[in-house]
Specification:
With 140 residues, the protein is mostly beta strands. The chain is built from no helices and eleven strands.
Length: 140
């Protein structure tokens, strides 16, 4: 079954945004990170964001993003001096080559074959290498 038949939207990350064909979501200012899960048998990482008080009315919904074909998943610890509320605030997302070291605060579009680097205000860093990224429909 095709992604269109499943109502799955191809997506891409860049700087502080999640982009789909029809919309861009500001993940730094307008959404709070809820967490992620990793299905190791299917090699899928699922990331979840929820709207906050700054989210435009037309975008008020949960965002569920699947990263499929995961080949790398790692994290770096948060700054213990930061409040835990800062774990929910994305600082930046960008891409680096799989052979490059993990860096904080990568601000760029994620190129094909690159790993995604998600940096949060708390200093927590999540690194994911995946073959594809898609946003799931609202009703899942």
């Amino acid at each position: 079954m095709s992604p269109t038949a499943l109502n799955i939207n191809p997506a891409r990350f860049g700087e502080i945004y999640l982009h789909t064909e029809s919309d861009s979501f500001d993940l730094h200012n307008c959404f709070d990170f809820l967490g992620f899960t990793y299905d190791l048998l299917q090699r899928i990482v699922t990331l979840r964001w929820i709207p906050n008080e700054y989210t435009p009315v037309e975008q008020r919904r949960a965002l569920i993003v699947e990263m499929r074909g995961v080949s790398h998943l790692s994290s770096s610890p948060r700054d213990p001096d930061m409040p835990f509320s800062e774990d929910a605030c994305l600082s930046a997302v960008g891409g680096i080559l799989p052979t490059d070291p993990t860096l904080n605060g990568v601000y760029c579009d994620v190129g094909e074959g690159c790993h995604h680097i998600f940096t949060f205000q708390s200093g927590f860093v999540l690194r994911i290498g995946a073959e594809s990224v898609c946003m799931l429909p609202e009703d899942i």
